[in-house]
Amino acid sequence: MEQEKEEGTCVQCNRVISNPICISCLRQQVEDWLIDTKPMLISKLNKKTEKMNEHESVPADHDVSCVKCGNDITVCYDCYIAEISKMMNVRDSELVGKFNRIFRFNVGLSY
User: Fold this and answer.
1) What is the DSSP letter of 40?
2) Cβ atoms 11, 74 nearer than 8 A
3) Of 27, 20, 18, residue with least CA distance to 80
4) What angle, 0 to 180 degrees and rounded to 10, lies between the N-to-C axes of helices 42-54 and 77-91?
5) CA-CA-CA-CA torsion for 33, 38, 42, 43, nearest 10 degrees?
6) How many of the other CB atoms lie within 10 Å of CB of 76?
7) How far is C-alpha 44 from the geometric centre of its chain's CA atoms?
């Protein structure tokens, strides 16, 4: 039997979205950081974000909007940052350590 989703939960992990920033705005923050650290990864970041956006549709009862742009949020901060961290780890394991120190502040969560 499929688990019933609560309103305002992430479509990937089913946790309540407590940091209401959409992945498009998060992508921009990560891109701003990559410009100074490893600009050649920006295209990979954009592709990964687009892929995550393609697969997520907004449920009819969804009520979480981005505090920056007002877009609906379907994927939480933690799931997005975890996916980007995995992508970076494949390409540059040293860079991912820096990325995690900046963007993964929920240290107690497992990814």
Assistant:
1) G
2) yes
3) 27
4) 140
5) 180
6) 26
7) 14
> How remote is the C-alpha of 21 from its chain's centroid?
9
Q: What is the largest CA-CA distance in the chain?
A: 47
Say which amino acid occupies 71.
N
How many whole angstroms separate alpha carbon 34 and alpha carbon 95? 10
Cβ–Cβ < 8 Å for 108, 73: no
pTM assigned to the model:
0.81
- Could you tell me where the DSSP H helices lie in 18-106? 23-37, 42-54, 77-91, 93-103
d(CA 40, CA 44): 8
Show the tokens assigned to 6. 């609560």
Q: What H or E segment, with its residue span, contains residue 51? A: helix 42-54
pLDDT digits (tens, 9 = 90+) for 31-84: 999 999 999 999 999 999 998 887 656 555 567 889 999 988 889 999 999 999
**Hunting for tokens 């990560």 — which residue is that?**
30
